[in-house]
Amino acid sequence: MSRPDGIRHLLGIEGMKAQEIEALLDQGDSYLERYRAGRKIKKVLKNRTQINLFFEESTRTSTSFELAGKRLGANVINMVTSSSSIKKGETLIDTAMTLNAMRPSVLVIRHASSGAAALLSQKVNCAVINAGDGRHEHPTQALLDALTIRRRKGRIAGLTVAICGDILHSRVARSNIHLLNTLGARVRVVAPPTLLPVAVERLGVDVYTDMRSGLEDVDIVMMLRLQTERMRGAFVPSPREYFHFYGLDAEKLAAAKPDALIMHPGPMNRGVEIDTEVADDIDRSAIREQVETGVAVRMACLDSVCSHLQAEEDE
């Protein structure tokens, strides 16, 4: 597999060109096929150090990045912020300077503040990958979602995708909206008014507040987690009432196309955002496939930023 010059950082999907996105998807697809076939994967990150710096808990994303780095031969260090000097009052800039002195090749950061990854990228000499920053973006989740869709549907352009649930607090929704629009899909957002951002239609989406209307004839149903940890106040009356109106069950799903794909970034709140029977539908649910695809896509992202770094070092 050829290695293009890659990208300097991966801070968000917004502003990326379609060909840059497609290159990462192609590379992720190749890694997935190689792994499934049991073929040898070149250790392109050998002798490079990857630091995973997670200020927010995320077992799925952090484990995925760790596995991706190790499959490519990187020395992977996971920093636990609960036991670090960050808890003692050290700022993000202080941490950046400390880590920069260790000369890593790539920093993978998840932070509760929007813009944290971009700020870090300005203070360090290595590549930075955004693993989720506040309500801003979660680019690798959008990339793995896109690859999952492309593998199952054969394309992204021309598809109608409904992103449903807590749009207001979701960085996953924002990254997916940017990516899907860039690659030619038509995007709908479906949510109660309390969970819709102000002027969300400016992002290039069709807005629905009724679940059945929003799902009518869609190709993809992408459910979102209710992010109660980011909520200050009563955004929904109760989990039971939320599920009644906005949880995905067989009755609401019937409005979508018969072969509509069901997705969820995880972790799922069963019986709140999605019914168990629908989530576990072996023919239509791609939720478990998203997890497997995530490792391959993050391998592609690590490969891309490190190949760009290599090109700089070779100059």
Walkthrough of the structure:
The protein has 315 residues and is α/β, with parallel strands linked by helices. The protein is built from eleven helices and nine strands. The strands form two sheets. A five-stranded parallel beta sheet has the order 7-6-5-8-9. Strands 2-1-3-4 form a four-stranded parallel beta sheet.
Unreliable stretches (pLDDT < 50, length at least 5) are none
Helix content: 25-40%
Count of runs of 4 or more consecutive helical residues = 11
Profile the largest sheet: 5 strands, parallel
Give the CA-based shape. globular
List how many beta strands DSSP finds: 9
Strand content: 5-15%
Secondary-structure element sequence? HEHEHEHEHEHEEHEHHEHH
Query: What value does the Rg take, in angstroms?
Result: 19 Å
User: Average pLDDT value?
Assistant: 91
What's the arrangement of strands in the largest beta sheet? 7-6-5-8-9
The N- and C-terminal alpha carbons lie at a distance of 22 Å
Oligomerization state of this entry?
single chain
Given the helix and strand composition, which structural class is it? alpha/beta
Give a brief description.
By secondary structure, the protein is an alpha/beta fold. It has 11 helices and 9 strands. 39% of the residues lie in helices and 14% in strands.
What features would you highlight for this structure?
315 residues; 14% strand; alpha/beta; 5-stranded parallel β-sheet; 4-stranded parallel β-sheet
How is the topology of this model organized?
Elements: H1 18-36, E1 49-54, H2 59-71, E2 75-80, H3 92-101, E3 106-111, H4 116-121, E4 127-133, H5 139-153, E5 160-164, H6 171-182, E6 186-190, E7 206-208, H7 211-214, E8 220-223, H8 239-246, H9 250-253, E9 261-263, H10 276-279, H11 287-314
Helix pairs in contact: 1-5, 1-11, 2-11, 5-6, 5-11
